[in-house]
Specification:
The protein has 55 residues and is mainly α. Helix content is 85%, strand content 0%. It has helices spanning 4-23, 27-53. The N and C termini lie close together (8 Å).
Length: 55
């Protein structure tokens, strides 16, 4: 079973990061948005890795 909650959290975090980048014209906030997207990708990956580690 995939860790559905972790994957959903990751997707929500990615959406927040994209919103930060689109809503901002400041470079520093765009960098924070990119970091937030990276964290979301890591969360999604964790959700899938848990599935393979504990069959």
């Amino acid at each position: 079973m995939i860790e559905v909650i972790t994957v959903i959290e990751g997707i929500v975090v990615i959406i927040i990061g994209v919103a930060l980048i689109l809503a901002s014209s400041l470079l520093i906030i765009e960098l924070i948005g990119a970091f937030v997207i990276l964290m979301g990708v890591i969360l999604v990956a964790k959700g899938f890795v848990k599935k393979f580690r504990n069959p």
